[in-house]
Write a structure and sequence with these properties.
Elements (H helix, E strand, L loop, with lengths): L1 H20 L1 H25 L6 H7 L2 H7 L9 H28 L6 H25 L4 H26 L14 H26 L3 H28 L15 H21 L2
Helix pairs in contact: 2-4, 2-6, 3-6, 5-6, 6-7, 6-10, 7-8, 7-9, 7-10, 8-9, 9-10
């Protein structure tokens, strides 16, 4: 427990420094984390008998560097930049699909349809989902909105844990995550709503967003955060591993810490973009 607390404090401190440095630092950090995350995911699936195409995953991380520096590229910010980015992503996805199927066709049996599928799954799961952290930071008032991602993941996890330890009795997913309880799940959602409301009250003089939006977003994040956690557990159980890695003492690998955030980041981004 002591090791977990020290690692968590260190991670939060590092995150605060990166957030203070700005969108470019966030973007570069996301790029580095995606490289580590894709490696951890493919390594885990390799233990399950699959043969992921590692280079394809690493190459797929490169567009995250574009997102990191896009704000400083003359002529790209705004609608023109958004249209260019959308076209670039579509083109890159097409080339990736062609490349993976070429491997399937011409590798003389080295890669199977399952190998190609898990390679693509890893890119969607890690690279695509984590990109929304950078996209959220690049929005107007993104320096504040990005904290909704961290609050959505961490508040849910914290409240779910302590509620589950205190009053948790009803097992919710015994075959996926035996320690998770229905009471803990409800507590996580309620805690996330509360944390989001407190954030909204504190920064509403800047954001000027009705507080009920923070309550709704808290409920959404409280749910998808736990789905992200369960998804990671389901993958790890399917390949019979405890953690994705050991880069963070007491916490496992990068994906063990980002599992909830990977699902929360898109939820926050889309809610802000489409609703607010």
């Amino acid at each position: 427990m002591k090791t977990r607390i020290i690692s968590a404090v260190a991670a939060i401190g590092l995150l605060a420094v990166i957030a203070y440095l700005g969108s470019m630092a966030i973007g570069i950090a996301v790029f580095v984390l995606s490289l580590i995350g894709i490696y951890e995911f493919y390594k885990a699936l390799s233990k399950g008998g699959f043969n992921p195409v590692y280079p394809a995953g690493y190459l797929a991380c490169l567009p995250l560097l574009y997102l990191a520096f896009a704000g400083s590229i003359p002529g790209l910010p705004g609608m023109a930049g958004a249209a260019f980015a959308l076209t670039a992503v579509a083109a890159g996805t097409f080339l990736l699909i062609v490349f993976l199927f070429c491997l399937l066709i011409f590798s003389d049996g080295k890669y199977t349809a399952a190998d190609v599928s898990v390679t693509f799954l890893g890119i969607i799961y890690v690279v695509f989902l984590v990109s929304f952290v950078t996209l959220t930071r690049n929005m107007g008032n993104g320096y504040l909105y990005i904290w909704l991602i961290f609050i959505g993941a961490w508040a849910t996890d914290t409240f779910a844990y302590f509620t589950g330890v205190s009053i948790g009795k009803t097992k919710i997913l015994p075959k996926v995550s035996p320690k998770k309880s229905l009471e803990g799940s409800v507590g996580g959602i309620a805690g996330c709503i509360l944390a989001m409301l407190l954030f909204g009250m504190f920064f509403n003089h800047i954001l000027n967003v009705p507080l009920y939006h923070f309550a709704i977003l808290g409920g959404i994040c409280g749910i998808v955060s736990q789905i992200g956690d369960w998804a990671a557990s389901a993958v790890k159980r399917s390949v019979d591993i405890k953690d994705y890695g050991n880069i963070m003492p007491g916490h496992g690998g990068v994906l063990d810490r980002l599992d909830s955030m990977l699902f929360v980041a898109p939820a926050v981004y889309f809610y802000i973009s489409l609703i607010l």
